[in-house]
Amino acid sequence: MERHTITFSRNVFLPLTTVCRNRCGYCSFRTPVQKGCLMDMGDVENTLRRGGTLGCTEALFTFGEHPEEEPRFMEFLKRTPYSSILDYCEAMCRKSIDFGVLPHTNAGILTYDEMARLRPFNASMGLMLETTAHIPAHASSKGKNPAIRLGMIEDAGKLRIPFTTGLLLGIGETIKDREESLLAIRDLHKKYGHIQEIIIQNFCPKRGTPMAHNPVPGTNEICATIQMAREILQRDIAIQIPPNLADASSLISCGVDDLGGISPITIDYINPEHPWPAFDELRTIVGKAQLCERLCIYPQYIKKGWYHPDLEPLINRLAQIVKARSRES
């Protein structure tokens, strides 16, 4: 009997800014302009250099959504050579490629044209749907309008961008809302075939936020959602859980395919209180399953050629590297 395979990617996490227009009731990633302006270019380059040396294949670029809408952000940006956060993101994606690490950008809401601009410099991109429900936690976050988020995911399909999305559990949605969210993702994938993975992520309370004392979804609840996702979604969509946020070893048998990006050098800036497991720990987490490394662009999209031609040499080289490492492990 063939062993079930659980995948992961080896990455570096680069939050280019933590300034954000949204005010989500559970988030501590967002910071005031003075504290969360731009990640220094030298720090980005050093992280990419170290990541490449340590065998990382993915650079996860994130930033707060539409930071230019926040007062005074542009004052800080004008001190750099860049006129927008997208200019800076594109430049850092180019740097990442130079260091031999494939970029994956998750920047909140982007337009069709903005994604088209970043596509040549990204092997994949992403946006968490979180929920199709209108919930109090998103009342002050115009970027969390479900219709806007679904529209961006659809635009990514039109652009043939290998895409990551997901659900955030425990933020005020119901089980029915989760089902509706999964059905919406299924329908978009049926139309465009571009969703390579879906993250089932549990809410983690953050001190000082309005939801600091809200209950956390338990293992059984997370497992039930994973099973629902497996029943609803197409088989070629991988189901991912973050192994630093939940009892991953207990969830593997629920239908998990992937453990996401794990970094040997950068923290989880969204959930800094939850450190990544070491690579050796992943083997214990997956139990009897086979652990294999992957790139941020899944193999089926490499075969389809869903990437800019300029990325082909790097994708092919890194694909051989992760294949060899997986054989050795």
Q: What do these coordinates show?
A:
The chain is an alpha/beta fold and 329 residues long. The chain has one domain (5-328): Alpha-Beta Barrel (TIM Barrel), CATH 3.20.20.70. It has helices at 41-53, 73-77, 85-98, 112-118, 146-158, 175-192, 219-232, 248-251, 279-286, 299-304, 312-328; strands at residues 5-17, 58-63, 102-106, 124-126, 163-169, 195-202, 238-240, 258-262, 290-293. Strands 1, 2, 3, 4, 5, 6, 7, 8 and 9 form a nine-stranded parallel sheet that branches. Helix 7 (219-232) links the parallel strand 6 (195-202) and strand 7 (238-240). Helix 5 (146-158) packs parallel to helix 6 (175-192) and helix 6 (175-192) runs parallel beside helix 7 (219-232).
Shape: globular
Low-confidence stretches: none
Order of helices and strands: EHEHHEHEHEHEHEHEHEHH
Number of strands: 9
- Class, according to the CATH hierarchy? Alpha Beta
Helix content: 25-40%
Relative strand content: 15-25%
Q: Biggest β-sheet: count, sense, barrel? A: 9 strands, parallel
Structural class: alpha/beta
Q: What's the architecture in CATH terms?
A: Alpha-Beta Barrel
Number of helices, where a helix is a run of at least 4 consecutive DSSP H or I residues: 11
First and last CA, distance:
20 Å
